[in-house]
Amino acid sequence: MRRLNRKKTLNLMKELDAFPKVPESYVETSASGGTVSLIAFTTIAFLTIMEFTVYRDTWMKYEYEVDKDFTSKLRINIDITVAMRCQYVGADVLDLAETMVASADGLIYEPVVFDLSPQQKEWQRMLQVIQSRLQEEHSLQDVIFKSAFKSASTAQPPREDNSLQSPDACRIHGHLYVNKVAGNFHITVGKAIPHPRGHAHLAALVSHESYNFSHRIDHLSFGELIPGIINPLDGTEKIASDHNQMFQYFITVVPTKLHTYKISAETHQFSVTERERVINHAAGSHGVSGIFMKYDISSLMVTVTEEHMPFWQFLVRLCGIIGGIFSTTGILHGFGRFVAEIIFCRFRLGSYKSTSVPLPDGHTSNHLPLITDNSTH
Predict the structure, then answer these.
(1) pLDDT at 55
(2) What's the pTM value of the predicted model, to 2 decimals?
């Protein structure tokens, strides 16, 4: 009884077989079929490798929303070298709420030589090349995001030549915490002092001949400091053509949440436009000599997430490639054989030319002669 049930089950399963087998004795192989099969297998192998490369790759997904965090502090990371002695310059921040943040809260004034060593010049040149490529190819920013914490530090390397030249510049570096509102970070002549109507700088004791606001921005960023991220002003160098010259940078800061497979951080991207002019009150060009960075905070927040193709999607695409190539090559091969047979049949029919056979009554017949058994002997 059990054997009978098993037999019925097997017969039922055979009837449900969607892949019937054809005996090998009924299968006809050909050279053209073998050639098409070889091309199909080669194409499948190539596309499988390419698909696996796509599967291993990742991409960055950008999402936008309104930034609802206005109570937290904004961190400004600064590393700027000015071609003036440290006792002659002062740096601070004044925001729209008229809150002054003095440089003593987190900035360090370090006397240095303004001219770079050969190794530092090479570092700056490479940084400027990367900046120019980033302006042309915006997709490289995704590569920088994915390489954060993996690539080498973008900080300027220390001097290797131990120059005996006396310091003629001041390196201002460190970080400041400011309110999350628009503000103005500036470096100008004299140290900053509090003032009932804002703030002021003690510039009266500094000679105009010593003004030189040639500067180099080795690093400027907002938010959490992430090694490997290159910001728009990194590597910028400006040489003043006059003692009384103003350099202005207008910055729009965009809060950014970065989520990759390596890091998860809250930082800020920014865009910048710049302007410089000589202060000449007689010509109507008013202002104060110095370096002014006016920043504004965007109300939008960007979330950048690194994504990867799911494994099931990779399998579906792989099955589509294999099945599609087999089906397509089979159709093309069948169509090619059909066309070839039509052409060869016409060629064979055209090779048989009609012949004229004389009849006894003097007429001729254009039909082919009938082949009989007697004619074959």
Answers:
(1) 87
(2) 0.69
